[in-house]
From TrEMBL:
Taxonomic lineage of the native organism: Bacteria, Pseudomonadati, Pseudomonadota, Gammaproteobacteria, Pseudomonadales
GO CC terms, sorted: periplasmic space
InterPro entries with a match to the protein in the record: SsuA/THI5
UniProt source species: Pseudomonas flexibilis
Superkingdom of source: Bacteria
Name under which the protein is recorded: ABC transporter substrate-binding protein
Length: 337
């Protein structure tokens, strides 16, 4: 998220301020037997397989089974467009990278994280040619990566682990789709990218290896469901039904992985074969995972938030740190225990 996006977030927050002033306080903890309110839920999406259980829920009828009158999956190509839609109320909820959600809350947008969706374990990685043996070898070397994205976050995490900063390398900004190609062509000795570009690079040059990946800083590269405060206040039954639908889809996926992967691949516009290694590098979160990790002493609050705050702050992607109370509304996952 480049600085221009941060400016956009601040402007969007300012435009939403009057609505925030008029909004009632967050309602009391929802009861598990609360029925969904009437109306269609508008859910913002991007073509990333980590959001895939929504495609499963849609195709398998889980939304209707959990009492929702309708869920419209609305695709966006860029974060800035989803940010604007969330701020204006054109969508009710959105699926975002965790650092993007934190930046939105930091800028004052009226949203909360209600559920962890997925984390990348090996689907995002720093890959290198044989000249790079350790993270320390990156010093003074050219590294290709896309600014303002999860690649940016992962690179800062890797550098911090080696006691370095961006000033210690030669940054080569470019789209993630081009970073692996630059490494293969010998233009750079290191690149940060994600699937399916990682698999393409490995297939074209077997000497390329992974030096650092999402699992080296668990939860750093992850995605969350954010919901507008207005929906949390006025339609808590729909929020509960969404979480139940994700869980139903998750269980279907666990029981029928090939069918589930085929559904998700269609949803993101690819074939299951193209995404085979990508699926292997992504962990989906269940409700039980959420109930464990979103506790005060849980992994997300205790570890992931701190690491994301540092990496996003170092990358200039987080205006100021946010607290768990500002960022999270855990009442819904707790109600479904």
């Amino acid at each position: 998220m480049p600085m221009s996006i941060l400016s956009q977030l601040r402007n969007l927050a300012a435009s939403a301020s009057l609505a925030l002033l008029a909004a009632p306080a967050i309602a009391a903890a929802p009861s598990a037997d609360l029925k969904p309110e009437s109306g269609t839920v508008k859910l913002g999406m991007q073509p990333w397989l980590g959001y895939g259980q929504w495609y499963v829920a849609d195709e398998q009828g889980h939304f209707a089974a959990n009492g929702l009158q309708g869920v419209e999956l609305i695709n966006f190509n860029e974060d800035k467009d989803m940010n604007a839609a969330l701020a204006s109320g054109r969508i009710d909820a959105g699926n975002l990278a965790t650092h993007t959600a934190m930046a939105m809350v930091s800028a004052g947008l009226p949203v909360k994280i209600v559920m962890l969706l997925d984390q990348s374990t090996s689907a995002d990685a720093l890959i290198v040619d044989p000249s790079i043996k350790t993270l320390a070898d990156l010093k003074g070397k050219a590294v290709a990566y896309e600014e303002g994205t999860t690649s940016d976050i992962l690179l800062h995490s890797a550098l911090a682990k080696a006691g370095m900063t961006l000033a210690d390398i030669r940054p080569v900004p470019m789209p993630a789709s081009s970073a692996g190609s630059a490494l293969i062509a010998g233009q750079v000795p290191a690149a940060v990218t994600y699937e399916p570009y990682l698999s393409v690079a490995a297939q074209q040059n077997p000497n390329i290896r992974t030096l650092y990946q999402g699992s080296d800083d668990p939860g750093l590269i992850s995605d969350v469901l954010v919901v507008r405060d207005e929906m949390l206040q006025k339609r808590p039954g729909q929020v509960l039904a969404l979480l139940r639908s994700w869980e139903a889809a998750y269980r279907f996926y666990q029981a029928n992985p090939q069918q589930g992967q085929a559904i998700i691949a269609r949803g993101v516009g690819a074939s299951a074969d193209e995404l085979d290694s990508a699926f292997a590098g992504v962990k989906f979160y269940s409700l039980a995972d959420n109930q464990r990790d979103l506790q005060v002493q849980g992994e997300f609050i205790n570890t992931s938030m701190r690491h994301i705050t540092k990496a996003a702050g170092d990358a200039g992607l987080l205006p100021q740190p946010v607290s768990p109370a500002q960022l999270l509304d855990t009442r819904f996952v707790e109600a479904l225990k």
